[in-house]
Design brief:
7% of the residues lie in helices and 51% in strands. The chain has one helix and nine strands. It has one domain. Strand 3 and strand 4 form a beta hairpin. The protein is globular and about 45 Å long. Strands 1, 2, 3, 4, 5, 6, 7, 8 and 9 form a nine-stranded antiparallel beta sheet that branches. By secondary structure, it is mainly β. The termini are far apart.
Length: 202
Amino acid sequence: MASRGRRAGGRTRWRRFAVVLVPALAAAAGLVVLTAQSVLAVSFSLSGTPFVVTARELRGQGFEQFGVLDHSVINVLPGHANQIVLTANGIRTATLTDLCQSVSLGGLTMRITAGTGGTPVRASDLLVDADRLSGNARFTHIAIGQDASTLNQVPGVRGQAGTFGEQAATVTISNLFQHAYATTAGTFTLPDFSLRFGGACR
């Protein structure tokens, strides 16, 4: 996986950034899931269309989180030209049980499910840029407030020097809910894959 330094972007509005980041951190007690400046996720321009991801349980080895200022082809955040303030959530290896992803496409909802037949979804070098997440989270060997440029749980994933970051050796989240704008992974294995239209994830 290529090293992922971020390109220089506009100045971050820290007050707006805190409004997005603080609730996510509080919800995890330091709640955090599953990328300022993530690296894989900014290798493409975001559509600006959010999607929902849910899972009965996520288990991960090697977790990182830090703030990102991503770029969209449309203006999502008023006053910020084509910029979205998000949290970058990286997991080195992850399994997800009863995965569901849904996105609204012009009045239709496309829904994808996988990992529902006893074999979980598996991902490596997973990176999710999200503005909302919730669930019941448990971390081991967590470090909160670490400089984002020194995070080392996910190879090649790190934030800007001097910005807030956190990491943990493991993460387990039950009843996971994510409102995300981008997901990338080195590998993504989806047993029992199903795609259909109609019905959002809950």
